[in-house]
Amino acid sequence: MPGEVNQQRGDAVYNEFYRTGGWKYSFFKEYLWHRRNVVRRFALRRGMRMLEVACGNGFHTNLFRWMGFDCVGVDRSRAGIEWAQKRFPRCTFHCCDLSDLAFTPATFDVLIARGCSHYHYDLMSDLALGTTDTLMRYLRPGGVFVMVIATDLSGRREPGRIWDNVLEDYRRHFSSFGRRWSVDWIKGAAVCGLYNQPAKQVDSLDSIPETAPALTT
Prior knowledge:
By secondary structure, the protein is α/β, with parallel strands linked by helices. The chain has a single domain, classed as Vaccinia Virus protein VP39 (Rossmann fold, 3-Layer(aba) Sandwich), CATH 3.40.50. The protein is 31% helix and 24% strand. Strands 3-2-1-4-5-7-6 form a seven-stranded mixed beta sheet, sandwiched between helices. α1 packs parallel to α4. The longest helix has 17 residues. The N terminus and C terminus are likely disordered.
């Protein structure tokens, strides 16, 4: 599996990257984008308990705290977590792998994964499916798992490079869990939701802007 082959190399690269703070973001732009495309889209409410997985340097964990959520960040990069703890001391961070989360089941109202490497390749792989299955254990009834991940919908599958999955790939992934789900594409990113409740007979239609690239398989 490409993700498994590149995982060790990727961890080393990201550890070095996070020693200098990792990605830099505009707080104002990220606040507006997440308020519109995550908080409002999934009807999230202030005070909800949230877990951000693969939180990196902790920027978005802190962003969600400012939005009024009780947000905890986890990442397997020690360098990323050390940076986050130093930069955002009011937030709670844990360094651990997603397969070894030390939380009680049904603890969170919201799980959010932004660019998690487990979803960069084959979304029907054991790694991707197993990660979602594991994460859902920590979601309270009625809660929602939100995935935000960059893609141009080109279907690019070049060896050794991150895949640009198409919307049908995300639909197959989320529909396999027998729960209510939604998949949308918003200006370069797939924004997906998996709810901790049974699937309805007819899922809501996925919205694809007119400017979206043509879907390929």
